[in-house]
Every structure is written in structure tokens, then in C-alpha cells.
From TrEMBL:
Catalysed reaction, written as an equation: a ribonucleoside 5'-diphosphate + ATP = a ribonucleoside 5'-triphosphate + ADP; a 2'-deoxyribonucleoside 5'-diphosphate + ATP = a 2'-deoxyribonucleoside 5'-triphosphate + ADP
Protein name: Probable nucleoside diphosphate kinase 5 isoform X2
Similarity comment: family membership: Belongs to the NDK family.
Matches recorded under Gene3D superfamilies: Nucleoside diphosphate kinase-like domain
Superkingdom of source: Eukaryota
Keyword Aminoacyl-tRNA synthetase: no
Length: 156
């Protein structure tokens, strides 16, 4: 794990809309479990534009942002907390490079090679650091404290 003590680490995995609609969920879950991950929690959710824009806020100034939001809201996604030693790095390795078209050539055993199509439609997400993982897990699974919910509502 990132703390080097052999403790388990958590990362966030998402099966994106094309992965869910293409019926890859069971095959991806099989790879996850055979790779030694524990699926700590999972949830199917339909993201709205605000959710997706918030989740991918780091990309808000990129040329592909509008298209990314359209893609991520095009159908339900399966969100999972994945747990094992060094989970962030291992999950990133397992999913393969961002461009699924290239992954089919350079990383044929990767999940993106199995179910992705191109640079955008790459069927899965993985947190890119321990810090991102914590933020992303909280984004989907942490209960919002009541006063925080009120504050957020007031800001809208
Ligand atoms: P992710 O965050 O979804 O796990 O993917 P990643 O780290 O491998 O790639 P990232 O750079 O964070 O990009 C986020 C997602 O945006 C879409 N994308 N489209 N058209 C493009 O140039 C482009 N580049 C990225 C992909 O769906 C990518 O996973
Ligand atoms: Mg990323």
C-alpha cells in the first residue's frame, strides 16, 4: 500500500456506461476478484451532468470535457470500492492505458482492451492516486452531514 506497511488500500473503480450496457459487468467483476481485490461496496447509479462534471472537475478546461460528461451520463454506471494491498496502482495496471484502442495492441490482457473502444469510450475508471481515491470514495459513498447538505443547497 502507499503507506508501505502491508495494509490494505482502497481505490475507486467505475464501470462506465458502455461497460454496463455492453454487459461486461460480470466479466470485469471476475477479473477483479481473480486479481485478489475485495469489492468492499458497490452501487449502480445514473450520473446527472452536475455529478459527472463535479467528479471530473480536474478536466473542466479540457477540449474533451463536454463529450466526457455526455458519455458518463449516457447510462448507468457501476461504482465500486476495491480493496487490496497497493489497490490504486494495481487497479490502474489492470485497467490499462486510457486509449482503449491502443490498449488492444500494447496491453491486450487489460480490461480496457477487453471492453473499451477508443480514447474516450474506455469502459472503466480508476483513481489515479491514493489522494484521488479518498476523494472519489467520499464522493460516492460518504454520507453528507446534514449541515453540509444545507450549505450545499444554499450555494446553488
Ligand atoms: P479515468 O480518470 O476515467 O480513469 O481515465 P484516465 O485517468 O485514464 O484518463 P484521464 O486523463 O483522467 O481522462 C478521463 C477520461 O476522459 C476521457 N478522455 N477523452 N477525447 C480525449 O482526448 C479524451 N481524453 C480522455 C476518457 O474517458 C478518460 O478515461
Ligand atoms: Mg483520470
Amino acid at each position: 500500500s502507499s503507506n508501505g506497511s502491508g495494509e490494505k488500500e482502497r481505490t475507486l473503480g467505475i464501470i462506465k456506461p458502455d461497460g454496463v450496457s455492453g454487459n461486461y459487468t460480470d466479466r470485469i467483476r471476475k477479473v477483479i476478484l481473480e486479481s485478489g481485490f475485495h469489492i468492499n461496496k458497490e452501487m449502480i447509479i445514473q450520473l446527472d451532468e452536475d455529478n459527472a462534471a463535479d467528479f471530473y472537475a480536474e478536466h473542466s478546461s479540457k477540449s474533451f470535457f463536454t463529450s466526457l460528461i455526455k458519455y458518463m451520463t449516457s447510462g448507468p454506471v457501476l461504482v465500486m470500492i476495491l480493496e487490496k494491498e497497493d489497490a490504486v496502482a494495481h487497479w490502474r495496471h489492470l485497467i490499462g492505458p486510457t486509449d482503449a484502442g491502443k490498449a488492444k495492441i500494447t496491453h491486450p490482457q487489460s480490461i480496457r482492451a477487453m471492453c473499451g473502444v477508443d480514447l474516450e469510450k474506455n469502459c472503466v475508471h480508476g483513481s489515479d492516486s491514493h489522494q484521488s481515491a479518498q476523494r472519489e470514495i467520499a464522493f460516492f459513498f460518504k454520507e453528507t452531514p446534514p449541515d453540509e447538505a444545507v450549505r450545499k443547497h444554499d450555494e446553488l
